[in-house]
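Weekly modeling sync, notes
Attendees: S.R. (lead), two postdocs, one rotation student

Agenda item 3: backlog of single-chain predictions. S.R. asked that every request posted to the team notebook include the full sequence so nobody has to chase files. The rotation student volunteered to paste the first one in as an example of the format we agreed on. Action items at the bottom.

Example entry:
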Amino acid sequence: MQTLLLSATDPITAPTAANLIMNGELVAIPTETVYGLGANGLDENAVAKIFEAKGRPQDNPLILHICGAEQMELFCHHIPQKAYDLAEKFWPGPLTIVLPAREIVPRRTTGGLSTGWLFMAARTRSFLVIMADPSYGESVENTYTHIFCYLNLITAKMRISSQKKPHSAQK
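Predicted structure, as returned to the notebook:
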């Protein structure tokens, strides 16, 4: 498997990443703070790749990154008005909303829970992905803000990555 390293400023990067995600591949994506590992959150095989790549416990839920509050009802039900109010105030940004998941969201994605974790980041608005956790790092102690630091760890397991630095690494 060949890992692609594309520039975030290249117009083909987002459609290439979206295509790979829809085909079950892993994609490294810069978030507002660090890099995340993304895949199609509705594809159990793709989700399994995230757990394998990270050595993540199977009962640790993944976060569905969505494009806007209007998509909450696609993946969750019984959504209170307060969830929409919070999304309007804080999205895109550092807020994860936990709601009862619809059947379309695999139990593997939810870590076996009945809830879905929804997030809207400014940098992942062009396609539906899931992030394994706040960073690519195999543990909270290993958060990577430079693409080449974690590419050394995961090169054989993912197909694409973007070179743009997370906001925290740009300072």
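Discussion: group reviewed the output briefly. The two ends are 34 Å apart (CA to CA).
Action items: rotation student to repeat for the remaining queue; S.R. to check formatting next week.
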